[in-house]
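#struct-help
A.M.: can someone run this one for me? Single chain, 269 residues.
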Amino acid sequence: MASKVFISWGGNLSKQLAEEVKNWLPSVLQFVKPYFTPDDIEKGTRWESNIAQELASSQIGIICLTKDNVNRPWILFEAGALSKNFGKANVCTVLFNVESTQITGPLTCFQATKFDKADFKKLIKTINETGGESKLDSKVLDDVFEMWWPRLENKIKEIIKNYKEESHEEERTERDILEELLELTRMTAKKLPRRNPISRHALEMLIHGLDRMTMRIMDIGDKDSYIIARELFNEELFESLEMLCMEFDAPMYIGNLHEIRNRMVHGLR
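D.P.: on it. Structure tokens below:
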């Protein structure tokens, strides 16, 4: 029976790296069936269909982290969803062009794998253990890994090098980020269980990110962005986040929400 590995990504660079890992894994472990969606996982509507089904039937979760996505709210949400389905032991963050010291918040709960030969081999051994009768003998696994590792290493290095040479993705607008936070809040309210520690960490990160976002908007002084942010927060985000604070038994964060709301009401004129 195939072992299913759910590969999570966020952002253009992470997507390219995740796709290479997806293509490479079955070459080493033929019983592995990786799941990788080419559609951006930040489009939350897909959570209602096949992604949820794949999560339920997978044994391992791999989160591809880069400098560009370690603080993305959606990465935090997906990490929590993976942990809920697999448990922390079967969720691994793979660090490509980012150091472990740069990882904060809920992502620190998971086993981190540096993209180097020794560390990545440990991850492959973990995946191999899910194979049951199909798993490879340790000597065979060593030989197969030695044969296929240079190919993956070279591909990953090439992708990262070329990405640095290209102009980065166009920076998202304040409205785009606020709408992502709103979508994440709605999805979290639907999907995450009561009093889950990972959920509370994700909630804390959401509120912290929103606090930074509103401060940034105030510093920029753009009136249109300020009006959009104020309307989204007062009409959608505040009530949803307040309910999540109560749902996760975290009333200590409600005060932060009120501070943000007061700032938005009495801020830019």
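A.M.: thanks! The first helix runs from residue 12 to 28.
D.P.: also worth noting: The longest strand covers residues 3-8.
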